[in-house]
Amino acid sequence: MHHFPEPDPGRPDLRSPQRYLLWLATRHPAAASLAVVHGVLCTLAQALVPYAVGQAVDQGLVDQDKQALVLWSGVVMGLGVVQAITGTLRDRCSLTNRFGAAFRTMQLVTRKAAGLGAELPRRASAGSVVSVGATDITRIGAALESTARGGGAVVSIVVVAVLMLTLSWQLGLVALLGVPLIAWGVARLMRLLHGHQQNLRQEQGALTDLSVDIIEGLRVLRGIGGEEIFAGRYRERSQRVRHEGVRVATVEASVVAGRLLFPGLLVTAIVWLGAHFVATGRMSAGALIAFYGYAVFLAEQLRRATTMVDQLTRAVVSCRRVVDLLLLERALTSGDRDPAELSARADLSDPASGLRITPGRLTAVACASAGDAHALADRVGRYEDSGAAYNGVPLSAYPLAAVRRKIMVVDHEARLFSGELGAELSSGPGTAAADLDTALDVASANDIVEALPDGLSQEISGSREFSGGQQQRLLLARALAHDPDVLVLVEPTSALDAHTEARVAARLARHRDGRSTVVFTTSPMVLDQADHVVYVEDGRVAAEGSHGELLRDARYRSVVTREVSVS
Amino acid sequence: MSALPVATSREVRSQARRLMRQHPRELAFSLSLHVLATLAGLVAPQLLGHLVQEADGAVDDVTSIALVICAAVVAQATLTRFAILASLKLGEKVLARLREEFVGRVLTLPMSTVEKAGSGELITRTTRDIDVLAHTVQMAVPDSLVAFATVALTLGAIVLTAPVLILPCLIAVPVLWLSTRWYLRRARAGYLRANAAYAQLTGGLGETVDGARTVDAFGLADSRFARVNKDIAESYEAERRTLYLRSVYLPIADTGYMLPVAGTLLIGGLLYLGGHVSLAAVTTVTLYVQQLIGPVDRLLYWMDELQVGGASFARILGVEAVSETSGDGRPGAVEESGQGIVVSGVRHAYREGTDVLTDVNLKVEPGERLAIVGPSGAGKSTLGRLLAGVQPPSGGTITVGGKPLAQLPLSERRKLVMLVTQEHHVFRGTLRDNLLIARPRARDEALEEALRVVDAWQWAEELGLDTEVGSGATALAPGQAQQLALARLVLADPRTVVLDEATSLLDPRAARHLERALAQVLEGRTVIAIAHRLHTAHDADRVVVMEDGQVTEAGRHDELLGQGGPYARLWHSWHAGKAAPAD
Question: What's a Pfam family this protein contains (chain B) (predicted)?
């Protein structure tokens, strides 16, 4: 059997969703064709069981031939064994197709999402990308898997049709006309049921949302009351779901009855006609038994064939989402200037605002509006194309990866990934593990690590495991451990209490001494530690100097000091 | 291990029996309909056997037999319809009751239990477990009952047709029994692992998307690709394990299904040739045995589902165990003249052995405005929660007007003291719904007044009280959510208010303005404010400084500044670099 993951998912055919699906289907040609072959053999074995039973009745029982009886009973058993074995082989081959397609798609999408990086949120909604993992890969995989069963069904329908027509063309005709008619009728009924079920699912979804809402707001409720009101709301919703459920049940019960009634009536018709033929000697008793079995068998195979068509249609829809995503390309271009030039000590400048960052200093930037801080950070970190330049050369002239290595921006969108905490904090190329302890100390994050049962080896499930203040300190520690030449921090201490904030600000200044650090902040504790403070208003540098000097400027003072006036 | 208990299998069984006993008539009605429907389904093979035997019989006979088969089919379909409807209706009824009882219990859970378990665990129980239970109650239970009844009745029909022909069916029993037992013992763990691996795989992509900017900043594209490959390897390994289980089980089971068919043909045929049974009997029983495959297969399939459903049921019942063992105390009135809140010798630990609070003593006078400050992790929020009676302290006492707070019933406690934290949850529903939680019969004028106090009327009026807010609808900014929480407080108007960073998400100037307005409305009420912004402390009657789970300083702002202790240091560092102190 094949082994996953494959080191390289390959180059997909993205010309259309259908071509992408075909490309996936043909990645494992041997497994794919074997799956269909086994699928056909399995259903054929199943199809021949009624025939063999009929022969056993005719040749063995009616003709009272012991040898024939033993022979045909043996054939029935043999068909059972063949069916069991080929069915299993089919499933084994299908697994390669199913998961090959799902895993390959997952690899391609992950690579694309990671490659788009900061541009991803602007280019595609998070939900649409995540749903590829949650639903689309399952649908695509299931569709490819269904081709084995569906292929078997199509072949066996043809074989059974021929068999029936040779046994008795009149009865065969009745069955061949009746079965699709019933399949069509049942499909209509099912569609009706699906419509109702959708309403029910919506009601159920709303009920679930309400219960999640209650639990998430439980602390708020505990503080201020309102439990009875919510219990009442839940009961009301729950009863609505119940009534909708009963309505669906009414339809569902009728559908089940219909699925019994229509094939039942067809079988009755076949039995009645067949019995006439048997009575008039035009057909054997065994053939009648076989027909009885075929009518049941055909209905099942038709269902499988339609399921396959249905799943393939859905898979194409899913493939379209995948292809759309895979076709996205980064808008930020990568320049080809020698990245070695970036290692020179030089100014980082943003002509649009007039901001100039001299190397080796802690520069604090106080922006009157939070939006300015993010826009400026995006420009000097080249998350957006602008005139921002290093040593007078636009950042866009250098390879993007080199700029990222040189300048690191950490803002409120920074996240920790799940995994071992220590590994996550020192993740990425160029991090010396020994620096992590120092970094944790600077960020005052030691106590967070110490509180974890396994310390740095603790498996964490991502940022959300920590409170806002803890997240900020850990994210700061990660950035410091990474030790970039230019570190740009956006409001790195906004969630910390006064004590911790003062400690972090002082240690940060000392730790980053000699390297360039830019902190966008309005906290007086951080501003006071900076070598140089820039005040930005309306997107432009309005004043520069030390924190103490700038405090004389009324505009600056109103932004950064949480003035306490005598009441 | 989960922090929320899980019911034992004995409790699960007794609860399942209780549910059955609660609706005896509906249950009996639906079961007897199912039995009748199954009986109708046994008619056709019986008559078909006759037809084969009387192959050269009269044509009239054939027509009347066909008519009887037709009638049986119609009867089976009709009976099945009503049987299914009856059992689904019963299922919906039982299910609605179970989930309502469950959510009712969740709402009365002690806060300490909720926090220990984490809201994730509770959400899993309300969403996944309720869903699984729904599936079990609506599908697995009725269908397995029906399948069981069908198997039993069909076997009965075989015995009635020709007792000796039951023997070939029995060949399959040990094969199916042993192989199914082997499979079920392993399948649960296998499928759980496969699901977990799949969730991990999906979660990995979710993280890549959510942290796209971090991936970019740290150059983590390769590490994310390595992560997806690691998850794929685990997922594939898990899928291969379940495939192995199916590869062993399914061929054996499928062969097991075919054994009785071939066996009946052969043994029955030999018996017929020996003149011991009739041709009709052999034919009928062969058809019956083929009819058995479907229900036996379903029955075996549901065995697994029933196990899963039972596990979910146990988790749902487990919540009941907690809410019953820790009641909220007996009712008892507190005199209006209350002598304030007295905290004596209070210590508290969330986890055994690690005290968050050690020996806290504090007296809060009625009508006093108290500020609690200190570094994070000092135990401020814990003290706030204990003061609000959200949970009882591990040691020591907190009394209001001389009565221990923890022993007051919830409704009584709420009139005395309320807690608003920095938690900014907006409930799904209209803006009005969000406010009415605090005072259900409040008129719109009262809502407007409350919103004005918290400086929220301007945006609230623009939005309209009937606008749907909360997740999935109009999103409110965190600051607006805090204003809503405070507006609820104004509406509820308790005697004591605990504000834990309740304005932290507003910008400093707006926060200060709001706090002042709130102070006016709460004039005469006791206000305990926990804050890391020191202007709150400056405005208070008294400041309490907490460090390492203890009260280290208490007094008026000016006094503390003069003492030059921790508070003074904090105050000066907060004003670091300021040209001149304002006061």
Answer: ABC_membrane
